[in-house]
Amino acid sequence: MHSGVHLGVQVGPVSLANPVMTASGTAGQGAELDAYVPLRSLGAVVVKSLAVRPWPGNPAPRLAEVPGGLLNSVGLQGPGVAAWLEGDLPALVAAGATVVASIWGASPDDYAGAAAMLAAAPAAVAAVEVNLSCPNVEARHAVFAHSAAATAEAVAAAVGASGGRPCWAKLSPNVTDLVAIAGAALGAGAQGLTLVNTLMGLAIDPATRRPRLGAGGGGLSGPALHPVAVRAVHDVHGAFPGAPIVGVGGVATGAHAVELLLAGASAVQVGTATFADPRAPGRVLAELVEWCRRHGVERVADLTGAAWS
Predict the structure, then answer these.
(1) Does the annotation mark 167 as catalytic?
(2) DSSP class of 253
(3) List of residues 6+ apart from 135 with CB closer than 8 A
């Protein structure tokens, strides 16, 4: 209960104190944001995607501001699961955060390995988010989330190795039939869906005639992504009304969060807004509470899918 509004939500078997989380890749690997917003006050902290081994990421520059958002090509830089468990997770636990560990891989075995390494993590790690927007080296570098079969294979590998910890499949908007891929993820055992990852984009510097990012193209996030995310959540909820969905894409205000909830999400993630304002997740939560008060909403969970009513 928060000022007369019950904020507790369920994402499948995972109970969250409220529906506002950080988004993977935008809040660091540990407790960096705790100085700006108490991490225990958020529904969960989703850490930057981790692999079975350390990964250097892409060459700089890695970020470029563009009209309507931000292009990034960080390239999944990270310390690897083992180093994160030892060096970063303890600070999150000490901060009282509920943690969602994001994992990635270049093969189904990589996903299984990362999930297995997290199987014995403390109970503070409430779920594993399986980031499927990664190239599959076993399929000529085709992105897992662009194929229903590859999605199912990677999800099944992670679920099978997770030791019973719930797995959410994070899917890409860069497809023609997201519903089919969402169905494949659910069929493979995903207990939640995170919708959506970034849109593919490219920015070229007219002065140099070269891409603004060191790796060439990148992923577009921020305001331009928001209506894409709303459509994705709406369509997938319509096809699978019982599937738990976490909405992510351009959430910068409480009203943005409400929009994703109405479309069918049970919870939301705040990402790019955090770069401009590290207090953004806490502010979005406060604005969501105020919106519910103004509109006589006593339980935020009652908003999920209400646009379909």
Answers:
(1) no
(2) S
(3) 106, 141, 142, 143, 144
Amino acid at 290: E
The pTM (predicted TM-score) of the whole model is: 0.97
Count of C-beta atoms within a 10 Å radius of residue 149: 12
DSSP secondary structure of 111-138: HHHHHHHHTTS-TTEEEEEEE--SEEGG
Assign residue 189 a region: left if phi > 0, alpha if psi is -120 to 50, beta otherwise?
Answer: left
Closest by Cα among 24, 18, 31 to 257:
18
- Angstrom distance (rounded) from CA 41 to CA 254: 16
Q: Which of 76, 134, 155, 262 is catalytic?
A: 134
Query: What six digits make up the tokens of 106?
Result: 């270049």
CA atoms within 13 A on the CB side of 102: 29
The dihedrals phi and psi of 106, each to the nearest 5 degrees, come to -100, 0
CATH pick for 9-58+75-199+221-308 out of 3.20.20.70, 3.30.450.20, 2.40.50.140, 2.120.10.10:
3.20.20.70
Could you report the per-residue pLDDT of 120-167, keeping only the tens digit for each? 999 999 999 999 987 666 776 789 999 999 999 999 999 999 999 999
| Amino acid type, 172 | S
Residues 6+ apart with CB under 8 A from 178: 171, 195, 196, 232, 235, 236
CA distance 150 to 185: 9
